[in-house]
Queue: 4 jobs
Job 1
Amino acid sequence: MGTLSPIAPGLWTDEVEPQLIGGAHKDSGRIVFPMPDGDAANAYDAVLLAREGTLWSWTVQGFEPKAPYTGPKPFAPYGVGYVELPGQVIVETRLTVTSSLKIGMPMRLVIEPFGDRATFAFAPAGDPA
Amino acid sequence: MTDVCIIGAGIHPFGRTEGRSGRDQGVFAVRQALADAGIEWPDIQFAYGGSSSSGAADIIVNDLGLTGIPIVNVSNGCATGGSSLASAYSAIASGEFDIGLAVGFDKHDRGAFNASPADYGLPEWYGETGMMLTTQFFALKLQRYMALNGISRRTLGLVAEKAFENGARCEHAWRRSPVDLDTILNAPMVNDPLTKYMFCSPAEGGVALILASEKKARELGIMPVRLKAAVMRTRPPGSFEVFAPSLDVQRGPSPTVVASKAAFEKAGIGPEDVDVAQLQDTESGAEIMHMSENGFCADGDQEQWFAERRTHITGALPVNTDGGCLACGEPIGASGLRQVYENVVQLRGRGGARQVPGSPKVAYTHVYGAPGVSACTVLTV
């Protein structure tokens, strides 16, 4: 996906095996995603997040969202979930599939096209890359 | 501190009213509440109010009269009404005023709400990629809750079935026809596991409540409903809220748990004393989860409660006796006040076809809003 520009800068590392970039709070160590910006960023250190985790919850978006949604036309239902990256943080993410989802299943980070840009998503870890 | 009483309640029917603005629906409700209390607009010393889509609440003075009173416009998402009431409660409990108004009204466009990321301090990509939807949050919270606590899809259907049954008996409800369980379960999926009939819709309506000190209520010769507690709380660490790009691995309780506990403490009673409850049911699962978050049952017990119809009007703890958000729809500014209105009706024994039998004495409300606000009340007679 190196040819497509990311939906926003600073969300993941630009490498063959990309990682999401979170923020670890300097005092509490609490991790958030994405890395905060503006003055809030001063309280956080950037931290690389695990590429694999487990599905914490999921749903399928069955209707086309209103603005500011900019997804592909025509609309097709897509998966949305939270993936727990062990010991780090639980991130909300698009899912690459809409069926056979089960809480606790292993998931893996992928970068996928989103219109003419790229965004992050998680895929079942058993799927071929 | 004085006891705070509700001495007047008014409502504009929820749903869709062509040709009548949100503000007009609010003014309609205020006039009805004034008549109910037997007082006039110039008797009102202050007001708190809110609307999300129909302008600032203080514009009602254009219609009701320029009496110069302070009016604070409240904006707390779906908990706007509850927050208005909590503020009005404090104004009277403090002794500064002895009669005032909490009002809410709204008129929303059709279809799901769409939020702006910037309004919630979130990056634009979060909305662009289709993750910033309230319906998704409800489904995500529920999906996990069901898996961990053994709640079935059928029970989600039973919640909606009850809502439409109750709505059919309630003159201020929007959905006035029962819907059978199969239709609910087999309807198009909106956000798995929730079908179309399991979600409430944005709507229109207005509610007004007149609050007074106990002394004032006595002077007016009104048999009041006592507002024993009206509290609002924001989210604690580790709670799971709408519009959250990430969650802490260390999980914590919801703002509802915190607000509910505070309300019961303040009222000096417990969930076991409650005779009728109105719980935020923006979708079927919310009612189920809020039953336990408000302390009425343990996680997972809801499956049994619904099998035994314990939250139906004739059950041990009737919940959402006017059909709740599912049957009334959700005009944001008015919704939390509708719950309190319904409890006032029930405590006065004026519920007609939906009246809870056995003269209920203690009533409870709970409303939840983005991004993690809950407001609860306890009413007694």
Note: The two ends of chain B are 18 Å apart (CA to CA).
Job 2
Amino acid sequence: MITAEQQRSWVQQLMTRADAGLPGQSPGWLDHARKAARQAVAGLPVLDRKQEAWRYTSIEALLKQCFRPADEAADLPALDINDCLLPAFDSYRLVFVNGRYDPQLSSIEALPDGVNVGSLCAGLSTDPELLATWFGQTANHTEHVFTAMNTALVNDGVFIHVGSQLELGRPIEVIYLSQVDDDPLLMQPRNLIVLDAGAKATLVERFIGFGPSAYFHNNLTEISVGKGASLNHYRVQDESRSAYHLSSLYLSQQAQSLYRGTTLAFGGAWARTDYNSTFKQEGAVCELNGLYTVGDQQLIDFHLNVQHSFPGCVSREQFKGVLYGKGRAVFDGRILVDKQAQHSDAQLSNDNLMLSRNAEVDTKPQLEIYADDVKCSHGTTVGELDPQQVFYLRSRGIDESTARKMLCLGFAAEVLDSINLPALRDAASRKLGDTLNAAVEEWGGKT
Amino acid sequence: MLSIKNLQVSIEDKAILRGLNLDVGSGEVHAIMGPNGSGKSTLSHVLAGREGYQVTAGEVLFDGQDLLALEPEQRAHKGIFLGMQYPVELPGVNNMTFMRESLNTIHRARGEAELDVPEFMQRVREKARLLELDEQLLKRNVNVGFSGGEKKRNEILQMAMLEPRLAILDETDSGLDIDALRIIAGGVNALRSPQRSIILITHYQRLLDYIQPDTVHVLLEGRIVRSGDKQLALELEEKGYGWIEQEAAA
């Protein structure tokens, strides 16, 4: 069990170590936000089993690690970005190495007028008014200790602004590369994405990790999708097996806007994604899809908090998991339909395929409905591969391991097929295939 | 080709097959008929290697080799094909990808060349046309959303692609309307050859109007109690199984 004192001293120590890395000059509103978050930390509740949202996700191991931010030079390994690029994928690219923006590896030339893509630090000088307006608008800085920590120590991240009615011809790609070989490192990108009315964009975030040492990738992303705007947002979490990863996403949607979020979670020792989605006006659509694989020494956790506060909005949440070895997954999907949110349409599902008896999933879909004219459904399944399906394939000459792998890929296909970028879909499919090979090998000939 | 001697099989200690004997020669078509619960489907499953059955006695030789010692996929490599009574749906598994994987795996196991994509496509289209199977079904997931008749036609399509040496068709005719039955029978007849044997498991004589068997067997309480030519099937159609049951009991 962790105590409030443990949690507090861990954060304090971390913040003291991190202070040196903060940029000297920053606008007053940012200083203010940092200070407020810092002051709040001491009073935030301890994230133990008594907190419903943290009931199945212990932070004990995380608090045992002593993280510090990457230093300027020593902690920035020379990496060959070509090893991490998707084949035949043309994008506006931002690259962060161990939490720091790397302009050399990035490529954001030839952006259309009215579109700003760059680091948050650059945004402070290129578009300070917009940043001042939107920063902290959707996020709850004091949601818990990690969001407060991210805010207290904001130093850089992604800033994207797509102006009214503009459509980007290429996806924006953000690669977070982590290579940690010695001291455990802390990375805390702070991202702000604003699409004005009628804008259209595709954003791909890829988290890639190497090295034997632990690191904590504690990112916080605020997204605002304007009236009639649409954002396709793909996230591929492929952190190293020593990594702790927390993604906190705060989403706010105006009338008739569309947000499609797909998160594929493969890596990390401890990885959690929190989606907080709020409709600010009528007729918006929010789709959240997810796929996760977990094996030995891995915990992957998804929390969804979708709030239907206005009438006539649609949300679709579909998450699928493949669990093997002693893998552990947590799914907590909550949809809240307020009294005034008539004609809300919400569907939530979570399906888990258990390839081993030692794997464990805690799944909890929740619908809270206070309106009386809505269309809502939720469902969750936890099952094994159907022996009849395995036999069918084997009777057609396909060996048992391949048969199992084909069925797992089939199980995941629905989520993968929803990826509209072929290069990303193929890469995800390959990654899943490799993971399943390892899973099936580990599973061996056991029945 | 296939020789079954004194085969005894139980499911959870309940005896289903109680000393079944059957010999199927190369190029022969055998029909096995019998009332519900007589062991017809158990026989087909045991031959294909499905789990959950205990073979308590007897042997099954396929080309002189102990078939029961082989894994289901190894039996398929040797040329055994089971057309299922209830073909399962495989969500997310593309029908074409599945058939190509199946065919190429079997080719590899036999040391034969794999088919490249154009060769495969040409062959599968040709066979699908013969079975009047909508080409769109090839692009869908295996059996997902297929009608009963489409599932059965998809089974025969796989048989046509895999060109087995012994095909066991388990109630392939059940649930089919007369047009679908005719098409499927046409597909099976096109595959008859001196090198290929077929076991038809059926409840109804009707199928045998379209696929003429060399021999008809009656399976009763786990044993073959009578064998004859196709006249036997007509007799069963007319009189039911009662008279054979009485004879067998006597």
Note: The mean pLDDT of chain A is 93.
Job 3
Amino acid sequence: MRIFTASLKNELKKIISRKKFLVFLIIEIIICLLSGLVQLVISKASSGMISTSLVFSNMPMTMLAFFVQIYIPLIIFMATCDLFSGEVNDGTIRATFMRPVSRFKQYFSKIFAILILSGAYLLFLFVLTTVMKVITTNSIVNFGQNFLAYSLDLIPLFILILFVAMLNQFTNSPSLAFFICVIIYIALYVIGILVPIMSGLFFTGYLQWHNLFLGILMPFKAIIIKMGILISYGMIFGCIGYYLFERREV
Amino acid sequence: METVLDVKNLSKLYKNGRGVKNISFSIEKGDVVGLLGPNGSGKTTIMKTIMGLCHANEGCVSIFGNDVEIDVEKTLQNVGGLIERPAIYEHLSAFDNLKMMGRFYSNVDEARINHVLDVVRLRQYGKDKAGKFSLGMKQRLGLAMAILSDPGLVILDEPTNGLDIEGTVEIREVISKMAAEKGTSFLIASHLAFEIEKICNKVAVVHEGELLSFESIEDALRLNPSLEDYFLSIVKEKRGSVLI
């Protein structure tokens, strides 16, 4: 466990020391503020027909839908390409390959570091939107439910990270890996929208995982099936990705 | 004498058919062994396979009695390496690079990192980003990363690459001092015969993926005026036997 923790700390250090992830955090704040501003303008323009408090009371959830499907996946693509194909490309992966740490621990410490990064962005978004909500509505209604929704959405993001990490094992070029990830993600997403019957088969259809548990409850059997699909995807992506990483020669 | 590294019938062939075939040799405690061979002869492939960066097709590598393919954590605990160019995170400082690598060892603390930076004369640049370093400074940092945990075996691929005269002499001194005082074993690859002659006590000649000879520098120089002549005579002998 000591070695895994050391490896995890290293991966987090590598991520934190890259300024772009701080820039993305600033962009996250700007998006939230702009969104709040637009809603305020709409509320004013409608002469109170659309109440400010109503709009802001649902802000944590409306922002979550956008961030969990578009913004955070982009950050995941970038971080994963940096930690996998990026390191192979610039040769820095050898620095850890030559250390007394198994490739299993290296692989999954990278995955968990990216998951922690995604969690940090989600947590920051939750705090920001909740603060905006409290300021405008003077209420913390649904605080627990919203927090649960944010937490649940980390699960499909974990599967997405495993998927992107697996794709990264097929190329040594971070830019090509990023391009492939974006194209495949968009393709799966669009197919899921155009052919709704297919969306249940792709893991990209489960990015708003909280919808299964919050609001209108689905039958227990349906939830179990969907959980099974997601877990299966995770196991397949995790195993293939790790195997290719283990056999990698640098 | 304690055997530090034991390479037995090691073969590693790439898809293009190049690589190394049937390599066997062993290194004992305190040995400084030079892998001498021209560019593309397979020196780096041998080192990469020993360090677990490549997977051998045949044969086995044992370091302090452990196999890198079976238990990488135990095997690499007492090994340091600098292979090809230094693997440095350029957006981090020299100190942070060492600190990150030091996390995997129980014997590396801040004092050890500073000591290693002193050894390679980079202490004053410790807080500077490694990306701004010159080629020679990066090489020194690479060496610092290799000796960070005070390993029993250090594997260095062209360690004086990019270093100036002073830097080259200093690196030689560090190697000789570690071997003499701590009994550290070294495997050093170079295509420069005079460099191996100066640092090593044993030499292994590698040519076109084969190990042509493995003996002490003393024996190699018995019938030859220099290691360069020794190398040429060995290669000539091999080519002659192929022609016949």
Note: The interface with chain B takes residues 3, 6-7, 9-10, 13-14, 17-18, 90-95, 97-103, 247, 249-250 of chain A (CB under 8 Å).
Job 4
Amino acid sequence: MSPSGPRSASGAQPDRGAAGSRAGGAAGREMLNPEVVARLSHLDVRARVIVEGFIAGMHRSPFHGFSVEFAEHRPYMPGDPLKNLDWKVWARTDRLLVKQYTEETNLRCHLLLDLSGSMGFRSPRAPMSKIDYARSLSAALAYLMLQQQDAVGTLLFADRPLRFVPARAVRSHLDVILRTLGELEPQGRTKLGPALHELAERIKRRGLVILCSDLMDAPAEVLLGLQHFRHRGHEVVVFHILDPDEVEFPYSDTSTFVDMESGERLTTEPWEIARRYRARLEAWTEHYRRACRENRIDYVRLDTRTPFDQALLAYLEKRTRLQ
Amino acid sequence: MNFLNPLFLFGLLAAAIPIVIHLFTRKRPREVRFSSLEFLSEVNASEIRRIQLKQWLLLLLRTLAVIALALAMSRPVLRASAGPRQGTATTVVVLVDRSGSMGATTPAGSLIQEARRTIESLLATLGPADEMLIVPYDEGPRPLSPRPLSDLPRLRAAVQSLEAGARRTEHRQGLAFAARALAESRSLNRELFWISDFQSAGFAAEDAETPPASLALPAGPWDRVRTYLVPLATGSRPNVALVDAALAPAEGGAALSVTGRAHDVTPGDLAVAAKEIPGDVELGRGFLAMPGRGEATALLPLGRIPDLGGEATIPDDALALDNRRVFAAGRAGTLRVLLREEGGPSPLRIALETGAPASGIALEALDAGALPARIADADAVVIHDLERLGPTELQAVLDYHRGGGALLVVLGRRADPAFWNGSLLADLGAGRLGDLEQAAPGATWRLRRRAAGHPALAGFPPRPGEALSTARFVTLRRMTSAPGTRTLLEFDRDRPALIEAGRTFLFLAPLDTEASDFPVSGAFLPLFHQTVKVLGRGTAAPSLIPGERYGAPAGTGTWRIEDSGGREVAVELVASEGATRLLSAPLERPGLYRVLQGGQLRASFAVNPDPRESDLTVFPEAALIRAFPPGRTTVLMPRADLAKRVREARYGQELWAWFLILALALLVAETVIGRWGLAGAPAASPSQA
């Protein structure tokens, strides 16, 4: 597989991607469905399936157009891959020239994964838990980035940073990242603010920071942490991952709700408060959306049934802007 | 409050079900692990009071709904204040008016039809042990059965035969009968349903002009009787009645004098038509200029005098019964009056002959020899100022009088008091005749009315004490009237002028111009015409009214009375004190009747409704209710749901429907409140939280 840049892919818009869905595309889009992905046990397989499904959804061939921008020809040197020979030039001029491409990126991306207890929530209607969704999404992103020869690192945190993998652009780094992503289970209470501040201090070079979290913390502190990244020149994408039941709150019987982080219990009539709860949640997410927009942070709300291409497209759009 | 299904009251225990469910059998909450309780706690804290209030409210509503449902099934009734004792028989007396005014029409039909429907509704309310006595009444009670019946088919059949008559109303007679029937009942529950138009005139005494302001109840067990008044007439109604139609002399030949009486109508001209009976040939037309209230008279020129009689009609109004007035005419309708006097034609003879035959009086002057032979066929005999009668003559007059014959005796200048006191006056029991009395020089007597409301004095000044005319008398005959006689006219308090003693009238003054100028006054002719007619027809009215009997002196032979349709009326020959008299059964139907002797027409007479029945003024309902013991009278309007309202008035008002509605309303409220708060206000933004 040749190193492939994001040029043509980055120019693709979601509509185009949808329009490009043909026979192979339809099958590829299946791969983006969390229900399908959830059946795959290995994270690397998940990442590959998601990315190839995503690309297949955009183009007839997953690698078609995935080339770096052509820069110049140079004479063929022994050892160069034959596939890089420009056969048309050879046919016209009888000279062996190799096509050279401009390497476009030196993007450094950090995937921030929230491992707080609330991320372990999975409702019966959800195909996977929030943390599984976040892992799959992060793995897919890492895979895609490394395919694009971007440097990828990852940070796992709960109330404090738990794991940190520095960003590197080598393909073999994917294994490290995937292993790290699957290493820990959700634990502890969410304290996004301090963790984000600490991570912001730790990442020295400017780059792209992608946060996968349910943001179950005080919004003001979370936003301060994100602003810290912005302050240090990072571009920030927030994938706000929620469970369908958290959004829709479909409970009807009298229930005792147990907080997954604190163990706190609350018995109530869910259908009595559902509407106000939903309104409150909407107001909360809207607050995040507005605040992120004000801080030039990309905010993408996802629930664990949302196909992965939505997140990947958001990333690619961001990537395009960074170009 | 009572309950018709008291066993269902045990259903009230079901009211505990919602409480038990709420308090003890609450489902154990399902445990749900949730990502964060932050929002739940926040929303729950703001909603918890509403939820608790709502739950208690729902509990209350559910409990009340169950209670209301249980009460509805137990059929509660709000007892009437004087409702009957349950489980015992009820005697129901239905007093139903069938007088002429009940033939009045309404948009729903006649009042009597409404009365029939009402009674049928009442029959539907009878229990198996209950009994009913239906008492139609007009001038008197006419019970449909001798005693109360429980036989519903028989009662229904009796109700179907109920028709309005033509007689006048006498409410007190019917009420007195009902009171007796109720007193005789042994039932613990006694009810009187009084169905009538409650015509005000029906409460007036026989001779009274106006009805009383209140009703005096006859003796009866009224404090133990529940009375239901069913007024069929919604209120007083305007009406015009023909109260008189009689042939009258006119310059161009015959004419019909027609009198109409208005009761609260719009003033205006009213068309009157006269037709012959039988044959329906039109005799004449005219108009009555009717006032809003009061009488108007018109003279209708007739093309000819009908042979038997005719009728005058006006357009139909509220009461059709009185829009037709029948009159007898012609030879058969003319009174045969015999005059016995001495000397040349007297002013009295001239007056009685005036206007014949249209006046209705066929006068025949006889001498002493002819009177005994002719007197049997006379309708009235006038004896004018004879000193005395011969023995044969006297015997014939006495026989005639004893047989019901009518006499007008003028006791003037010639009369021998000894003879008259010892013969006719003694037989009459009228009093003692005295001498002639001359007025003091310069003084005169005037003829004044003594009695009110007598038909012989119709049209004269109505109040007692008023002078009949301007005529002045200087000579009169003294007489002391006996108890049992009635002085109609007088000269002053001690000097009677016209005395009524049975079917005999005594006039006590010479009828010559020396004794007075009365013979040349305007009152002379009508007074004696009316007196003779009233005497000759044997009744107090120009025509008979329904309920009266026709009576006339009758010789031997086969007598028959039939109406204009040929229907025979039962008659009998009554022998009394040597004379024979034809007497009919009470005449019920208005119309023209013929009297036949051996198949030969001997007389015709008319029967017309009593004018008092035409006043459709309604007696005040409040006065009726006041007459009965307080709290024992209910007014029921005759509508489709009468049976239901009777049951409610009898047993109380059933409330199950209300409780059912209440239960449904509570359940609806429970549903509405159950959804309360589901569309809550949007939550505050997190930055404000």
Note: DSSP finds 13 helices and ten strands in chain A.
